[in-house]
Amino acid sequence: MELRTDLAVEAREIAGEHVGGVEYRSYHENGLEISRLTVKNQKAKQALGKEIGTYITIELPSLTDNFTETDQRLVTIGKEIRRLLPVHGLVLVVGLGNLEITPDSLGPKTSSRVLATRHITGEIAKATGLDKLRPVAVMQTGVTGQTGIETGEYILSVVKRIRPNAVVAIDALASRKLERLGCTLQISDTGISPGAGVGNHRTKITKETIGVPVIAIGVPTVVDAQTLAIDLLKGDCSAKTRKLLSPQGRQMVVIPREIDLLTERASRLIAFALNGALQNEFDLPDLVSLM
Amino acid sequence: MELRTDLAVEAREIAGEHVGGVEYRSYHENGLEISRLTVKNQKAKQALGKEIGTYITIELPSLTDNFTETDQRLVTIGKEIRRLLPVHGLVLVVGLGNLEITPDSLGPKTSSRVLATRHITGEIAKATGLDKLRPVAVMQTGVTGQTGIETGEYILSVVKRIRPNAVVAIDALASRKLERLGCTLQISDTGISPGAGVGNHRTKITKETIGVPVIAIGVPTVVDAQTLAIDLLKGDCSAKTRKLLSPQGRQMVVIPREIDLLTERASRLIAFALNGALQNEFDLPDLVSLM
Amino acid sequence: MELRTDLAVEAREIAGEHVGGVEYRSYHENGLEISRLTVKNQKAKQALGKEIGTYITIELPSLTDNFTETDQRLVTIGKEIRRLLPVHGLVLVVGLGNLEITPDSLGPKTSSRVLATRHITGEIAKATGLDKLRPVAVMQTGVTGQTGIETGEYILSVVKRIRPNAVVAIDALASRKLERLGCTLQISDTGISPGAGVGNHRTKITKETIGVPVIAIGVPTVVDAQTLAIDLLKGDCSAKTRKLLSPQGRQMVVIPREIDLLTERASRLIAFALNGALQNEFDLPDLVSLM
Amino acid sequence: MELRTDLAVEAREIAGEHVGGVEYRSYHENGLEISRLTVKNQKAKQALGKEIGTYITIELPSLTDNFTETDQRLVTIGKEIRRLLPVHGLVLVVGLGNLEITPDSLGPKTSSRVLATRHITGEIAKATGLDKLRPVAVMQTGVTGQTGIETGEYILSVVKRIRPNAVVAIDALASRKLERLGCTLQISDTGISPGAGVGNHRTKITKETIGVPVIAIGVPTVVDAQTLAIDLLKGDCSAKTRKLLSPQGRQMVVIPREIDLLTERASRLIAFALNGALQNEFDLPDLVSLM
Predict the structure, then answer these.
(1) Which of A289, A290, A291 is the mutation pick for testing C, counting most C CBs within 10 A?
(2) Dihedral of the CA atoms D153, D155, D156, D157 (nearest 10)?
(3) Based on the structure, what is the number of domains in chain D?
(4) Percent of all residues in chain D with a pLDDT value above 90, rounded to a whole number
(5) Is C251 inside a domain boundary?
(6) Domain range enclosing D206
(7) Which tens digits make up the pLDDT trace of C119-178?
(8) How far is Cα A169 from Cα A188, in angstroms, rounded to an integer?
């Protein structure tokens, strides 16, 4: 049994703050606490168990704090996403996970709110000014058990056809701490690694495997019951504890009771910010009204 | 912090097997493990924290074991429910809980599958033989935050109007053990007590408050994170642990990742068995085809 | 076969504009076309087939015209609703219809967006200022086939218990003209008559039967196929036509392909306006953020 | 304005029964009325407006007639589908249409019930006998407005990657006659043509464009309002009629009120039969229990 987290900032907490090859700085903007963590070399990668690259972490307001479409915090989040995107060209947005398993539904719920524009072309687009929108395509991979197609393979088949300049992959994450559920947003330029996400994808979805940069965006929706147990027991876990926590091999997760609201809020927030990041010529409210 | 469970058999495990005034026997039927626990007096009630009355507990097959509509186990479960029902007269089936919060959705999901027949009257009913069906009415209370009406008050208002001979209240439960999630069915003649259920209703729904017998049916869908922690820490919980487990006062629960499937299966199973229990003149498959 | 419409303005078009006992005037406000039609006496009632009372009709912008939460048109609609409400006291908002049949789902979809406040009482409410909110309770009746309880009987049982000063009943309507689908809002102080609505309720829900004023709010979502046929054939319908239009007695309706979007938009619009009408001490955007 | 139908049997009714190059025969099996229509040459293709190939039409029982999983009629339908499938090899099942627009949701609803097996490989599959299942992959295309990817392009990208022996495309259809809604199943080996389906896809999905045989399966869920009008008016339609039927250019369709139930039933029926057709080594009930 080991501590499981998809968040780079938690991996750093676990490995210790003075690991070599890890750069970390944090700042505030528009009332949001933002940090940038860079894994710079192989040594840092192994110490943290995180791919080489940049991880931006944004602490969101607590669940009771509603945001509106014109919230400046959304603009701030959108800017952080935009910095990782190529300046021009087609972007393929991919929702990972299972729509029917609430804690795993962040990906499909969010991607279905992203404005697809790749098909808007021709005279009408020119006449209405819509030809100035950045081309965006949107897909949901479903889960391999329902499609018979590995997630990475599915994305690759579409990437080969439509040749995007970048992929944005949205997925539900696991964190180590209950307080972060629904309240922490991680954006990275490192793609998705095997075993990450609530659905535990088996394939790597990175520039290496897909051929184009992969920006990963996620919010933790669960803490693994085993990770919570290790924290409570300070690592002192017997075989009996393990069995108790995983009856008949079923994986148990800890969630807030209001998991449905949490997933809904995170999905709307990411979709708003991502639409703003992708279509930077336009005001966020206008785009939202198109949704 | 204390151990929380809505299951009488777990309350007995906690209180000890030799508490006075508690009768307990178990048996097997059609491959199901069934137990009958009777809380006989005030002393037993206080020791177990459970109302005086009978609690039937049925261990369901594990989640991977599918049942079909003609499964004899459903007939067995139906018979156990029927024993607690009055022989004749109108039954009001009530789904408690919140359809939009998956672990709390068992009540509304199940009740929406129960065959309502109270309105089937007159010449057509006679001609088709449907007048032999037992009269059944079905309601869903929603949650007070969405209706502004207390659950007990809502049920009472309908009971006063349609005057049923009994109420069957279906609700998601909390258990102490992860292995019981989705796999234990409790049927009791004691109604619903304040603080029970995943949604933690504040009002008592019993013969005392409603005026007619209240049969409660439930399946555990969550373990409270605090209850799990107590078990793991053998009761040795600090204030820091409590805060960790309940950030910003949010209530955390432990669920299997496949909570949606678990709730769906339990809901279908209870609905099949309950329809069979209510309409005992008819074969289960015929009824199911009406659903 | 006869022309079916739930809209008073269409009933007036059919009966002719010079029927005695019908008052009609129209005006513009905030870009909305609003009319007030009053059925003043028995003669007018029989000529129009509409109960005595006031019918306010608001032409909504076409489906492609999005409105935002701060839209002044919502304030205008809210004011029209508020004029028909009692100044003080509890209001029970009732969603009629079937959530699972899209064209009939306007009632439950809308009422689930109305802010319930009746349960917000006590010290906390005072401290937060929430005790100034008007008390509102919200219920959904479901359909008799699923509950075994007549819609009117269900409402009456709750009314007798919580004793509201008024009931607001929201229901999907049938209109005569396709162009009105999703684009016309009718508000009346006459309650709901048998045979009205997409679900064709059999019971009257009026001050007479319920004991308190009943405000009805609806938007047409369907045109009956038979009504369309009469218009196309100028009333010249043979028995063969009738059978063609109603195979095996099934009732056919005409809808726009985008019926789901239409119902969603109408539901949000009514909920926004109604929340504003009920909670007039507060700004609409604030309320919306509570939703 | 012209009569619109996606059903070959209706195209034949319109063109006349004695058009050259059209073969037609009908028979009964297990209480189902089945017909085989073959468009044999270019002349027949132009007369009927249907691609060259075979169209099997099965009249389903009326909506009130429930079928169960062991119904022999499902076996019959499964056999008809199997005849058009290649004997061995991977099959890609594609659900076309929009899950959020009920009359257009048949494709995604059905495909999500088809058993994906392509990923079941290796030692475990051998040990459990699951390696004998035919490999099946399942995808849903969504709609271009939401994905930015043309339906045909999307399918082609996956076909190129996973190289199936055949594609099965499921889509909601438009018929000319109301009595056929939900009650007629068409299976063809001709793929999908532009303008077909409720969603009116613009691209051809056929062996020609995709590179492998495309079996199309569909059930009509709508009649175009204009087609109904032509039938009612015997073709005598003025410009005014056209405008009345298509206000603001919105496309109107005629549906039964119970469109949700109709789509649900058709989706389950096709999924059962298709699973049986694909996995012919296994009994239908066993497969169903896997769903």
Answers:
(1) A289
(2) 90
(3) 1
(4) 67
(5) no
(6) 8-223+256-277
(7) 988 887 787 777 788 999 999 999 998 999 999 999 999 999 999 999 999 999 999 999
(8) 10
